[in-house]
Write a structure and sequence with these properties.
2 copies of one chain form a homodimer. Chain A has about 450 residues and is α/β, with parallel strands linked by helices. Chain A folds into 3 domains: about 140 residues, Rossmann fold; about 140 residues, Succinyl-CoA synthetase domains (Rossmann fold), CATH 3.40.50.261; about 160 residues, Succinyl-CoA synthetase domains (Rossmann fold, 3-Layer(aba) Sandwich), CATH 3.40.50. The first copy, chain A, has 16 helices and 19 strands. In chain A, the strands form 4 sheets. A 7-stranded mixed β-sheet of chain A has the order 9-8-11-10-12-13-14, sandwiched between helices. Chain A has a 5-stranded parallel β-sheet with strand order 2-1-5-6-7, sandwiched between helices. A 5-stranded parallel β-sheet of chain A has the order 16-15-17-18-19, with helices on both faces. At the A-B interface, helix 2, helix 5 and helix 11 of A face helix 2, helix 5 and helix 11 of B.
């Protein structure tokens, strides 16, 4: 657990007044260049200070030879040096009262032997200098709320997201980041924990738990020696915010566990899974499931229970959805008799079988009628959540606006499964998601999103 | 089984010299309008004949009052009339020697009772008139090779695909079609079997099996009473072409089975699964898996065995891949000592652990070095297939061209997992896939694609 001062220093690392890049360089294929470019492209508005012994200027920024030459405070140092120079840099950071440092280099504990000893020295130096150390062997961190991209992935940032992310692997962080971007799920903060020499999962979880702009926390974990601290903390956090977790290393887990010493959570993937669930974390099996669940939790209100209704213009997709929902703990119950009467009134001349899932057939392609059907189904007291299925068709209108209104009017979540190619989806998705309706392109993602809401609602009730 | 004449007539329905649309209309939200629009937009080069008792012209096409008024042959009739008029239309088709008809209307067997009787009359009329009947209650069919879109989904067609599709549900057909489009998997032929009043799964499978332009066949099935005929035929077909199958209705299957009478394959989802596998079909669990597997089979050469190597710039994604591959019957074996020596030569100054999966770390972002590593790994006699993982980065080059050459040089499939948002993927995907390298955006899809090649290779060997 971080104490108050440590939390404050970590918060300054996420929201720095100025950022120094140790090892900034002019060579575009080097990390020290990409990181500087990331900070500049991300839209960071504080001071940016490249550090290099010989260059005068890189990417239009004035370069300082040493951290010591910089006038004024530096809150965050991004250390893009080799594994030995990175250790020495901790003292330099300490002398300048740098609050946090990101150590990008590999060559530490993951190499065993000498590397492990070097990592111990790095951690000791960071602690001695009161530097909140992220990594080593990390891609860095992002705080989109502050326009800060302190990673070596130059990408644009978007503000206003409520989804924050802790990953052990930079690459998996990228997997999640790109998928979130494709899904219109805006990332608020992201940190790659790397080798966790000083700061571990529980420290970052503690930080995000008290971050007022973070509403949903997601974690990708390969393994940790502080699993007990992590799950105990998470068990408290989930009372206020959902924590979604993906665990890697199923196939080789037994071997990996043999290499650890705590015993507290060593065991099969099933043990991990069960312990996580017992403490109220939402366990997912893939990056796509993580993003789908997180998006639903970020956008939609929670349902009162697990009773799902499906409205669709075609039976086949709903059959696949029912298979998935069934396996995820959601149920489809028959409509109330009053609902059936109202539906019969609408379907007088159309040959359809009235049931849940409601296959509206051709009627389901008319935007107006579709919205009327959604209204009737959402009014059913036995329905906690509506999955609205539609198929993109150039001659038909999708009633985004009405669905947003209906979700609010009935106080129930609506989740959209829109069958389409990626190209034709943007306009509808943006409209729906801005109005609190998570919007998906596959049956699996739709079911994961709906079930994610149901799972967290059950925990909170 | 279709006899020679039936096969010829069905082939003319897929490759008609002229197409009539019964029930063509000027109202854009009606099926009879969308179908005509589909035929015109699809680029069909034969004669298009809208049939309507009163209109003179629709969408620039001259309208005929009755099929009988049309001078010259009509090979395919698309019947967009109501469920009763559709039955009468079969006689009209027979009088004009129409080879095949698509009956779009619902209101038949799926409604029970009267609908079931009406469907029997429809089937009887079709058989009596020697009309090869698709449907009823179907979205239609597509033959992109002939520029024929005979469905009510107006969409553009692309030629040159080798992937053909049989689906029981139009909506699931759309799911697969849109996903295939997003993945750059070009559809050759697609037919929605609908209620299968006359033609069933096995008939269309027989047709596609002898279609020289179809290399991979995929099937979405909810249920059929002719399951035995289907699997026995499929067992023969898979000796020449892979058949990928997705079965819907897991959750409610027991109820569905109770409604059927054959007993031949009534039983749990596991029974279906096991029987399909026993006959050599490739069983998949989702639309995404179907498209991933089919794409690999459409593009890549078959591997000699199930030994997979992974080359990656980041360990995390490979951990998720290993978990998936392990569950799908692929194995990762250590590299040969000669391979290790060659890798050591390349990695002299870089701190990486040499193993399979090979995490090339920062080296993995250099296109030239990445290609050298791929060459070394593919040369290993213990490697049957390479999964090349990369992460999109604006300052780095992805060596598509080299990977295509290396796959050919070593005679082994290469599958790419490219971690990226959708926006930045098109150029690389197009290049790779044109060169026989299936290209994926998620770990699951990559593993499904690779495992699909391994599964079919095992069957063929």
């Amino acid at each position: 657990m971080l104490d108050k001062e440590q939390l404050e220093r970590l918060d300054l690392a996420f929201n720095p007044r100025s950022v120094a890049i140790l090892g900034a360089t002019k060579e575009p294929d080097r990390v020290g260049y990409s990181i500087l470019e990331s900070v500049l492209r991300g839209g960071y508005e504080g001071r940016v200070v490249p550090i290099h012994p010989r260059h005068q200027e890189i990417l239009g920024q004035k370069v300082f030879a040493r951290l010591d030459d910089v006038d004024g405070p530096v809150d965050l140092a991004i250390v893009a040096l080799n594994e030995r120079a990175s250790v020495e840099a901790m003292d330099e950071c300490g002398q300048h009262d740098v609050k946090g440092a990101i150590c990008v280099a590999g060559g530490y504990k993951e190499m065993g032997g000498e590397g492990e000893a070097l990592q111990a020295r790095l951690a000791e130096a960071a602690v001695r200098n009161r530097v909140m150390l992220v990594g080593p062997n990390t891609l860095g961190l992002i705080n989109a709320q502050a326009g800060l991209n302190a990673s070596f992935w130059p990408t644009e940032l978007h503000r206003g997201g409520v989804f924050s992310l802790i990953t052990q692997s930079g690459g998996v962080g990228q997997m999640i980041g790109f998928k979130a971007q494709d899904e219109g799920l805006v990332i608020n903060k992201w940190v790659g924990v790397g080798n966790r020499a000083a700061l571990d999962f529980d420290d970052f979880l503690q930080y995000l738990a008290q971050d007022p702009t973070t509403k949903v926390i997601a974690v990708f974990m390969e393994g940790t020696e502080s699993a007990r601290r992590f799950v105990q903390l998470a068990g408290e956090v989930v009372k206020r915010k959902p924590v979604v977790i993906l665990k890697g290393g199923k196939a080789e887990l037994s071997q990996l566990c043999a290499q650890t010493h705590t015993g507290s959570m060593a065991g099969s993937p099933k043990v991990y899974h069960d312990v996580f669930e017992q403490f109220g974390l939402i366990v997912v099996d893939s990056v796509d499931e993580m993003v789908s669940v997180s998006k639903a939790l970020a956008l939609a209100p929670l349902p009162r229970g697990n009773r799902v209704a499906i409205l669709t213009p075609s039976a086949g997709p709903s059959i696949l959805l029912v298979d998935l929902l069934d396996s995820l703990g959601c149920v489809l119950v028959p409509f109330a008799s009053e609902t059936m009467e109202r539906l019969e009134g609408l379907f007088r001349d159309v040959p359809v079988v009235l049931k849940n899932p409601l296959d509206a057939a051709a009627v389901g392609y008319s935007g107006d009628l579709y919205a009327q059907l959604a209204d009737i189904v959402l009014a059913d007291v036995g329905v906690d959540l509506l999955i609205a299925v539609s198929i993109d068709h150039k001659n038909r209108r999708f009633p985004s606006g009405e669905l947003i209104e209906l979700s609010r009017k009935h106080g129930k979540p609506v989740v959209v499964y829109y069958i389409s190619d990626v190209e034709h989806v943007h306009k509808h998705r943006e409209a729906c998601q801005a109005g609190g309706i998570p919007f998906y392109l596959s049956a699996e993602e739709t079911a994961w999103g709906a079930a994610g809401l149901v799972r967290y609602a059950r925990l909170r009730s």
